[in-house]
Amino acid sequence: MRQYGLEPHHSVVDVGCVSGRLPAQLKDHLQSDYLGMDIVPDLLTYAEALCKRPDWQFRKVDGLTIPAADGSADFVVFFSVVTHLTQEHSYRYLAEARRVLKPHGRIIFSFLEFAVPAHWAVFDVTLNDPNPDKVLNEFIGRDAIAAWAEHLGLGVQAIHGGDEDFIALDQPMRMDDGSVLQGSASLGHSVCVQTKAQ
Ligand SMILES: C[S@@+](CC[C@H](N)C(=O)[O-])C[C@H]1O[C@@H](n2cnc3c(N)ncnc32)[C@H](O)[C@@H]1O
């Protein structure tokens, strides 16, 4: 988000904030508004306690509506969220994100795509899971992203494949398996950055 212009005075809407992974990283950087939303209330309580920012909002939502005014946010982000929604629901959520975005604001969402070979493993797990209530892992093609953006009046500023080392690291990062990343890293998921011209 910093690479795409996040400043301390910016306001952020984090759709699907779950237990607070992103706001925990933002809490000492962001001086302005943060709205974290999720459909699971217990996780929101945990995230709120983790961040200790009484000025921030953590809201339970139903459906695909963002409880924020038109043109009020600099960033609306969906990390690992549209991966679990149908394409129709993702499109509706992006339309809602566009509504709450300020002119020149940015939408960032992570996604799964067949263009990234490593994402096949996720497809394979879903393919072989017999559980009728299995987690939805929806793949999105870049052609769909281009069509959605055109219909929503959004610009696609960048798309980074999940295996692309595009994230500049300002310090070494230790992974759970003990390996250390330096210089730059990928996210794993692919990432799309969209802009609202006006
Ligand atoms: C895989 S988690 C990602 C969490 C977080 N963004 C992260 O990267 O750590 C997906 C989250 O999206 C939430 N979610 C699913 N549908 C949603 C919806 N319609 N609105 C808001 N959040 C939703 C889920 O409850 C879950 O907490």
Structure explained in plain terms:
- With 198 residues, the protein is α/β, with parallel strands linked by helices.
- 25% of the residues lie in helices and 25% in strands.
- The protein is built from five helices and eleven strands, in the order E-H-E-H-E-E-H-E-H-H-E-E-E-E-E-E.
- It has helices spanning 21-26, 41-51, 87-100, 120-127, 142-152; strands spanning 12-15, 34-38, 57-60, 73-78, 101-111, 155-160, 167-168, 173-174, 180-181, 184-185, 190-195.
- The two termini are 20 Å apart.
- The model has no long low-confidence stretch (mean pLDDT 96).
- Residues 15-18, 21, 37-40, 43, 61, 64, 79-81, 84 line the site of S-adenosylmethionine (SAM).
